Here is the input.
Amino acid sequence: MRRLYSGLAWTVAGAVVIQAAAIAFAFGGMLNLIAEGGVVDKALLESFQAAGVGEVGFLIHGVVGGVLIPLIAVALLIVSFLGRTRGATLWAAIVLGLVVLQVTLGFSITDMPYLGLIHGANALGVVATASYAALRMRRRSEQAAREEATTDAVTA
Here is the structure.
């Protein structure tokens, strides 16, 4: 269970990095299109016909952030209950809480664009917290292995 927990936590952190790359690709493509005299409007974004301008980045960002990361964060919390490692549930709950905040901010940006500032900063919080949860679990696994080796040496 510890490896699964750690793997899920690393996957959350990695998925946030994928999101950052996708949104950078999307905005880079939009800026390129505008620089060449094109127009970006709602019809263009909804048509998915602006080949090569990065609109697929918006799709990737939305699917990974709105579906994939929340599902993995919920799975992380469930695995934390099954693993019975001290502190694992707390850190999984913090990761899930930050992910819920992130999704809420992401869907609210169209109504209040300044929330994008918090959305970007919170993404760093998700990466840091998920990474810490994974590293903490690895340390716990190494500590348990050392304790088991010590117990085996004493009984032998």
Notes: The mean pLDDT is 88. The radius of gyration is 20 Å. Residues 66 and 107 are 9 Å apart (CA to CA). The helical segments are 2-35, 42-47, 55-83, 88-108, 115-155.
